Task: structure prediction
Amino acid sequence: MIWWLKARRVHPVLTLTVGAFVLLTFVFRDNAVVLPSFSVSAGNNVVLSFFTPLIVVGAIGQCLDARLPSAELTGLRPVGWMDTGLALAAVSAVLVGSGAAWLSLDSGAALQAGRNTLFLTGLMLLGRGFVGRAAIVLPLVWVFAVVFFGRKTGAAYHAWAVTGLEASHQYAAALAAATFVVGVSVNQYTSRTAL
Result:
């Protein structure tokens, strides 16, 4: 187990990025920036914490890609299950941190950042089963697609723009959880073939 943690670089990479996510969630609160958009002419205010899930998703992808192929293929340890546990633990820590920020700051953006991390991690894990290591760009492409094309009006997002929907939106929470479950399942099934 210790060698697996070292090979996956959990302590120097994942622990620090989850901590950075929680810290930035507290710092950013509900602060927003105005970004360009192709779908609306004005009013594309995007909360800063909209981008913080990318930190954690990138770290999870990096940790899962840090492999020792010969040892993992010939070993007896359940590496696929350990990788699944790693993704679950990281996302659980993010959800606890964003929930704490939501409770202490009464910030919907904090809760939204946790939900978006769940969705984007699931998207990345789902993509790993089909395109391998290149799946790390899927969450980034998704986030910028939502920023540039996701708005119906200055205040409302399209239904496909799950990460832009409000924190209290039930559809977005259900879709984020479903995407994560499917992503973890696909990653579990394909983790050894992705070497």
The radius of gyration is 17 Å. The mean pLDDT is 87. The first strand starts at residue 32 and ends at 34.
